[in-house]
Amino acid sequence: MLNLLNARKAIHKTQQEVADYLGISRQAYSNYEAGKREPDFETLLKLGEYFGCSVDYLLGNKKDPAPKGEVSDEDIKFALFDGAPVTDAQYEEVKRFAKFIAEHNIRPKED
């Protein structure tokens, strides 16, 4: 998690402020920054949203953070498949299904 510190400093926040946002202790967040512990998937998504960068950037897979609101294919694959390897064919099938849903205005039923 080498980029957590850089991302936090870029938005001028303290460890305590980030920890409060996540609902964890400052020490728990500090352990993420120090590489002593790794955040779970949901926490990674929250951190990316809070810092306005991609999960790939936080994980050290990209040198530059993606602008807020921009989602890379790698972010989507990570979110859908929890980091498991995904073939291009599998990913294309997911994209085709998403397009079908959008074109047919399919919405989940509300309770």
Automatic annotation (TrEMBL):
Keywords: DNA-binding
CDD domains: HTH_XRE
SUPFAM superfamilies associated with the record: lambda repressor-like DNA-binding domains (SSF47413)
Limits of the HTH cro/C1-type domain: 4-58
A GO MF label: DNA binding
Matches recorded under PROSITE patterns: HTH_CROC1
InterPro entries named among the record's database cross-references: Cro/C1-type_HTH (IPR001387), Lambda_DNA-bd_dom_sf (IPR010982)
KW DNA-binding (keyword) present: yes
Protein name (record): Helix-turn-helix domain-containing protein
Source species of the chain: Candidatus Gemmiger avicola
